Structure formats: C-alpha cells, structure tokens
UniProtKB/TrEMBL annotation:
EC id: 2.7.13.3
Cited NCBIfam families: PRK11073.1
Transmembrane region(s): none
Annotated keywords: ATP-binding, Kinase, Nitrogen fixation, Nucleotide-binding, Phosphoprotein, Transferase, Two-component regulatory system
InterPro entries: HATPase_C_sf (IPR036890), HATPase_dom (IPR003594), His_kinase_dom (IPR005467), HisK_dim/P_dom (IPR003661), HisK_dim/P_sf (IPR036097), PAS (IPR000014), PAS-like_dom_sf (IPR035965), PAS_4 (IPR013656)
Name of the protein described by the UniProt record: Sensory histidine kinase/phosphatase NtrB
Keyword Metal-binding annotated: no
Organism: Leptothrix discophora
Chaperone as UniProt keyword: no
Top-level taxonomy: Bacteria, Pseudomonadati, Pseudomonadota, Betaproteobacteria, Burkholderiales
Length: 356
C-alpha cells in the first residue's frame, strides 16, 4: 500500500508547484490544485488520463518514468514541454522530477515552471547582492564620515585666518561641498541608525499617505489610480519606513513622467493583491502582499536597468541614486523582495512582503 493514501494527498493542494501521484502504468491517482489551474482542466478529467498525454514529446518522460518504476534509480529529472490544450496557451516549459513512493507502487511527479525556477534563482542572487551592497555602503559611509569632519573643520579654521576676503570664497566652497557629502553620508546611514518602530500596518493607509504627498507636489496633469484589495490583513512593520520606501518609488515615477504630466496624460497605478504560497529568499510563506507601483512613463534606461537598486545609480540629472537603494533596504527589513519590470510606456515596481 502507498504511504500517501487518503487524506495525505490534501497537503499537496497547499503547494504552488504542480504535483501528481501516478500509478505504475502511468495513470493518475491524484493531482493538486496548482495542476488543475495550470492545465485548465478539472481534477476528475486529469485523474482519468495518463501522464504521457500531458506532454508534447513524452518519449524521454516515458523512459525516465519506467526507470523510476523499475527501481533503476529512485529519482529522475528532465525538462519537457507540457500541453495546455484546454486554455489554448503555448506549451509550458517545465522541470519534471519523478520520485518513487510506496515501494514502487506509485510515482510522485513534481513539475516546476522553468520561469518560476529562474525567478527564484534571480531572487536569491538579488538578496545576496543586496546584503553585500548594504554592508559595503555602511563601511564606506563610516570611512568617509570622519575625514569629512576634519576637512570641514580645517576649512573653517583657515577661513578665520584669511585676511583676503576673495580667498574665503574657496574655503566656502570646501565647507559647502563637505556639508553636501555629509548629507549624502547621513542618507546612506539613515536606515541603520533609526530604530525600527514595529506596529500593525495597514498597507492602504501607507499608500493613501504616499498618494496625497505626491499629488500635493503634482496637482495637475497626473492621475494616481487606486486598485486595492481591501481584504488584505494588517501586518507587523515600520509604518514610517514603508511610507518612505513607497514614496521614493512613486516620486521617481512622477519625476519620470514630466512629458506626460505636461500633456495631462501621466498615470500611476497603486495596486495591491494577495499571493498564496510564495517563496521569498528560500523561505516559503503561506500568504504575501503583492504591491505594484505602475507608471506609463518612458521606462528605465536599458543601460542601468539591471543596476537601478545599486547606490548612486540614477537615470535622472540631479538624482542622488539613493531612493531605490533605501527602498530596497526597507523592504528587505520586512523580509520582502522588490523587483522592477520596465519597457517604454510601462514600468512596474513589484514589492512582496509576507503577511500573517
């Protein structure tokens, strides 16, 4: 008898990956909810079919399946194209994992969308990169801070000793630039200095605050559309930090929409949704907030698209290149992830934060 008979199958419905339990002849015993949703077919229909009917070219799958059933090896892996006849979609590239269960009586099939796997790998690299960048910023800022104080102090002393007032213009430049760099260093260190104030956060209160601030600055030519899922629960977080993070992104979007604002066609959408069974940084969460900030601007320049969260990288004249870096830091402090998709006419910043 299989070890997974009966109610044990129900747990598979909580997985985001497609899972099927198969008999030794390839016929289906069980498919989970993700399998139903992807193929667009009811469970009863799928459970009357054979695994090989679901794939474009099942030859390699048949060979691997038979090897697992015959106990030549316990687990087999391959890549394949999965049919989506019911939905009329293109074949879906998947990574298939076949594992023997129940002493060879059954085989567990897990299908991971290759794009999903690539996304998880990309998220992992992004989180690792952000941790390294954050540590570098902190160390660099501290190394700059002390010499800056000495430079400014020396310039002030020199200014007091100078009799020629025309020369004090030069010391004034030194003091002014030292102050400007000091302000930059303070912004780099701000997220690490300020203690987090953790409380229950309503994301829509955060968005409404951001919306009012941006519209106060751009009262004409810009529309900010609300597209909220009001059923989302509150979560524990730092409200003020989240306001600053979302404000940085939304202000960047508004500043990129200068041409559209002049024409009265600028549009930003603030969208919230719930996602289930989400993986963020190798951790699985039952529920997560999906926050999208979308604009109809010209898009992020292609040459910086992969580096926009790096400090001091900006596509705007006069920009500090710190707004997105600080936003990323805040989101990660909330165990979340931030990504950007951009094309001319549509840029979307996507934030995911775990929900209780």
């Amino acid at each position: 008898m299989s070890l997974l008979r009966g109610p044990g199958y129900d747990a598979f419905d909580h997985l985001a990956t497609m899972v099927a339990v198969l008999r030794a002849d390839g016929r289906c015993v069980f498919v989970n909810a993700a399998f139903e949703a992807t193929l667009g077919l009811p469970r009863r229909t799928l459970q009357k079919s054979r695994i090989f009917d679901w794939f474009v070219d099942p030859a390699l799958l048949q060979t691997t399946f038979r090897s697992v059933v015959d106990n030549e090896y316990a687990t087999g892996r391959l890549e394949a194209l999965m049919r989506r006849t019911a939905t009329g979609g293109e074949p879906l590239p998947v990574h298939a994992i076949l594992t023997q269960i129940g002493h060879g009586e059954q085989v567990l099939l897990e299908l991971v969308e290759i794009e999903q796997q690539a996304r998880q790998d990309r998220e992992s690299r992004t989180l690792d990169q952000a941790r390294v960048t954050k540590e570098l910023i902190r160390n660099l800022a501290h190394e700059i801070k002390n010499p800056l104080g000495g430079i400014r102090g020396a310039a002030q002393l020199l200014e007091m000793e100078l009799d020629n007032k025309s020369l004090t213009e030069y010391t004034g430049v030194i003091i002014h630039e030292a102050d400007r760099l000091q302000a930059l260093v303070d912004r780099l260190l701000a997220p690490h200095r300020r203690p987090r104030v953790v409380a229950d956060v309503n994301i829509h209160e955060v968005l409404e605050r951001v919306r009012s601030l941006v519209l106060a600055e751009h009262s004409r030519g810009l529309v900010i559309v609300r597209d909220y899922d009001i059923s989302l629960p509150e979560f524990r977080g730092d409200r003020e930090q989240l306001i600053q993070a979302v404000l940085n992104i939304t202000q960047n979007a508004a500043q990129a929409l200068v041409g559209q604002i002049a024409d009265g066609k600028a549009r930003i959408v603030l969208r919230t949704r719930a996602s289930r069974q989400v993986t963020i940084g190798r951790t699985r969460y039952r529920l997560a907030l999906d926050l999208h900030i979308e604009d109809n601007g010209p898009g992020v320049p292609a040459d910086i698209r992969d580096r926009i969260f790096f400090p001091l990288v900006t596509g705007r004249d006069g920009g500090s290149g710190l707004g997105l870096t600080l936003a990323q830091d805040v989101v990660q402090q909330h165990q979340g992830l931030i990504e950007c998709e951009s094309d001319p006419g549509r840029t979307v910043f996507k934030i995911q934060i775990p929900l209780p």
